[in-house]
Every structure is written in C-alpha cells, then in structure tokens.
Specification:
This protein is mainly β and 123 residues long. The protein contains no helices and eleven strands. The chain has strands at 4-7, 10-13, 18-24, 32-39, 45-51, 58-60, 68-73, 78-83, 92-100, 112-113, 117-122. The strands form two sheets. Strands 2, 4, 5, 6, 9, 10 and 11 form a seven-stranded mixed β-sheet that branches. The model has no long low-confidence stretch (mean pLDDT 94).
C-alpha cells in the first residue's frame, strides 16, 4: 500500500517561495505517477502538476507554468513541488497523490492521497 506524507506548507507573502515535499512511506512501484492538486474553500480540487516516475516527464496547470516546478528523488521516494512567485490565489490545501500508470490531471483517477498541507499567501 502506498502511504503519502506531505510537508512544507505555511504562511508566506506574495512573491515568496515555498517547497512542498511528499514522501511515499509505503510500497513503491516502478510505474507510479505522482501529482499535486490543490483545493481552496468551496472550490473543486484542481490539478497543479504531475510527474511520471520512470521517464520523469512533467506536466503543469496553465496557472502555475513558469512559477512552479515538480521534481522527484527516487532514492528518497520523494516528490517535490517548488513554488516561486506565489500569489494570493495560490492559497489552498495542497495534496500529493499517486496513481499506477501514466500522467493524469483528473483527481478521481488517483488511487492514493496524502493528508494535505495548507499554503496561505498573503497580499
């Protein structure tokens, strides 16, 4: 069973940076794709970024392209989300997720989820 634990959220000002981490403490798979999603109060859970485990192909939502970067360290079973030039509209709970197979930007196709970490960006 995959078990995801996120860390790195917090309260920052607009223009600041944060790095989120997501570590898989459970079973690993060579075909495991990882994604980051976020959910603001009263809104849907939105795709932010994803990375395939074997090819390291990356994908981003248009709203974060050029500001956010997803990467992974296979030796540590950890995926990172580097968030730069943060904006107030980036405020949300950020969730790490995993799925078997390739890339997907649809949250319902992910099989495992972390507990979420709050990111708050003040103006």
């Amino acid at each position: 069973q995959v078990r995801l634990v996120e860390s790195g959220g917090g309260l920052v000002q607009a223009g600041d940076s944060l790095r989120l981490s997501c570590t898989n403490l459970g079973r690993t798979y060579s075909s495991l794709a990882m994604g980051w999603f976020r959910q603001a109060p009263g809104k849907e859970r939105d795709f932010v970024a994803a990375i395939t485990w074997s090819e390291s192909s990356t994908y981003y939502a248009d709203s974060v392209k050029g500001r956010f970067s997803i990467s992974r360290d296979n030796a540590k079973n950890t995926v990172y989300l580097q968030m730069n030039s943060l904006k107030p509209e980036d405020t949300a709970v950020y969730y790490c997720a995993a799925r078997l197979g390739g890339y997907s930007d649809y949250h319902k196709t992910y099989d495992w989820w972390g507990q979420g970490t709050q990111v708050t960006v003040s103006s």
